[in-house]
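Predict the 3D structure for this chain.
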Amino acid sequence: MKVVSDAGPLITLSRAGYLRLLPALFGQVMISPTIYTEVVQKGKKCRNVKEFEEASWLSVTEVMNKTALRLIAGHLDLGEAEAIVLAEEVSADLLLVDDLKARRFATLAGLRIGGTIMVVTVAMRQELLSEPPGVVLQNLKRAGMYLSDKVAEQLLGAKM
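Done. Predicted structure below.
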């Protein structure tokens, strides 16, 4: 399965202590150089930058279509734009992105999208997380993720 990620899910999963779920669920995850810079080199947002630096499952891939990138980057931040264009270029099976505006662009581009909530929900269903849903929810909120009441209820109702 080809998976591309924006910085948001990586940062949130790292802060919540759940970054290990990505290789467990997807094997390899591709990111652009801008996302690598945002997550690792400016890594103050992350729980443990070292886990990114040592992540053999993380593949930094250059975006080739600079024209598409310029068109999208006028509407999104550069990392989100690169994630969308990279996902298109590699025919990704899944793009991990949390930002609503970026999700809309990705959907219009015909990409299959998921995000942090999808990752933890699938992980709970596959019994990759031992914490009860309430603890997972608290960890995500502590990591700085905003969850609507509807999404929180869905997460709490996820089968373990």
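The radius of gyration is 15 Å.
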